[in-house]
Amino acid sequence: MTPTQTQQERIRPYLLGELSDAAREEIERELLINEELFEELLVTEAELTDEYIQSKLAADERTYFEQHFLATPERQQNLRFARALNRYVTNAGDRNILPVAVVPSFWSTRTFLFRTTAAIVAVIAIVAVGWLGLRQRTSAPGNFATLNLVIGVSERGKGTPPSAVKLPRDADGLRILLRVPDQSLPAVGYRVEVANESGQSKSYAASALEGQLISVVIPAAELKRGLNSVKVFAISASGKEQRLTGNGSFVVE
């Protein structure tokens, strides 16, 4: 579903924490059902990070960026990576390792691809020396199905039927967007445990988005047909885990 102009215009203030509670909750509901809007959010996150590094944000936006946008550890890590990449390319350019034509802004492209082969070589070099810090969300498979789940508690006998998802044969994986309940433990990360009907379970690191939204990607090879259950754990700065109340379930057809 193609995002409307109004939805697109609200993504930036949403990420900077400028929306009212009602507007924020509305756009979070839209993110759960609109995959293209979610992709727009990821692109805007990258653009904001680039503008911050390049000192192109207005004074008020810079304040919102530092106080709200950088509240999650994942975005802080992505910012560190972006800065390291910017320094590497700048220094390499000063030594004439990269051609002058290389564009200095690497995160503003809407496809997240570098514009020259030389820039790609720079990224490979950074990976070799351990600079690659992007987490699961930005390394998610390029061809994947999307599933929206709400983790919650249902009354006995009145449970919501599990969501069904069809996984194309050529799919690299399944991306699950989860709306989780509030928790008392301040979370710096999340772990999602997925169990199939045979009782086999596996854990995956999840990416925090905004509000009560998190995202997890499961490789296609690790998905089992039939019913799968989902549990979510919040992780504190000390490493302590808190199991969030409720479960989710889905059926892979």
Protein described:
By secondary structure, the chain is α+β, with helices and mostly antiparallel strands. The chain is built from six helices and nine strands, in the order ααααααβββββββββ. Strands 1, 2, 3, 4, 5, 6, 7, 8 and 9 form a nine-stranded mixed beta sheet that branches. The radius of gyration is 20 Å and the shape is globular.
The number of helical segments is: 6
> What would you call the structural class?
alpha+beta
- Give, in order, the helices and strands: HHHHHHEEEEEEEEE
Flag low-confidence runs: 98-141
Strand proportion = 15-25%
List the helices and strands and how they pair.
Layout: H1 5-15, H2 21-33, H3 35-53, H4 59-67, H5 73-94, H6 117-128, E1 144-150, E2 163-165, E3 173-179, E4 189-196, E5 201-208, E6 213-219, E7 226-235, E8 241-243, E9 248-252
Parallel strand pairs: 1-3, 2-9
Antiparallel strand pairs: 3-6, 4-5, 4-7, 5-6, 7-8, 7-9
Helix pairs in contact: 1-3, 5-6
